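Justification of resources, computational component.

The compute hours requested in this renewal are based largely on the per-chain cost of generating structure records like the one below. Each record pairs the submitted sequence with a full structure-token output. That output is archived, and it is also reused by downstream analysis tasks.
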Amino acid sequence: MDFGEAIRPIFFQTDYEDFLYATYGGTAFVVKFRDRLYALTCGHVFGDFRHGALFITDEKHAKKGAKPAPITGLCFPSAPRGDAEATDVTDICVIEFDAEIAPDFFKGSEFVINESSVATAAPGHELLVAGVLKEKTRIDPPDITIGYCRLQLRDAGVVSSDPTLRLAVALFAEPAFSSITGISSAPVFDQTAQKLCGMVVRGGMNGTVCSLWYVDIFDIVQLLEDVSRGATNHDYVKLQTRPVSMTDTAIDSSGLENGVRHRVRLANIAIKAVERKTEPFSDDQKARLMMRYRDIEYSLVQGLGRHLWKWSASVAHGVITGQAHSKSAAVVEAEKAIDRALAPKKTRLVPLPGRRD
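The structure output for this chain reads:
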């Protein structure tokens, strides 16, 4: 099974009666661990959205009417100790699905995590990242376009004081994108070893150079193990190699020092219960918020990331549209436009040629 088939876009439903979707970007990676279904993501992709509004579809390309996966909890290490303090390990989030979820809910697309399918990457290994780019994603009802992508990078090893993070780098000669915003929580696959090796937590573009920081699969599996057995604390030792310095040759195996031992404690593993309030997936006009002004009905559509609102109205002479940076501004602009459209037009009488009154 292609690991890229296990990704799902992170979407949230609003609390409007006629709901719409919004996102800050990011993905959910559906996995099976010890015969139980979970999803992996980063905690920061939730932003200020309500956890219960998270919508994970059964298929990568959602169909109208698809029901959301039944989520019961979000699990993450809330108070790490030892060498885990002040690291990105706290950004790992394991999404728990209801224990009664149908085994085939995700149509067999989930990635099975076991001893033979995962491994820590080695410096120089070719990596493949499957995720979502926010700049390529559009929510413009009735159309929802997901900007799926696959990025090829190379592992550059451990280049920071964070024992859970690894660096991946690439040089894209002519990238078809200007930003990798939205790539957070994308799975990282080691093409050299043919094993899953981690999950992206952040990254950026500097011209044509792409840098991604990703959490080592070793640490992700530790948390999955704890969640599966209901543990609240876990101490483990992580032995790894680390480049002496971050240079252009860091992706080579030369210059590594052996036996860096880290004592990691995932303390107070918290489980937040999720109260569900979602509806079946819709790609039709229900994704609009309908308003009325001077007996004219107009719609507001919330754009990606809550930073854009589009409005449209049907008046006598046709359809008028516009957009604004906030909902309130969109309402003002739409109603002013309706006022202008309904304003009486001044006309001038022109006498017919050859006629005198």
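The helical segments are 217-229, 327-342. The first helix runs from residue 217 to 229.
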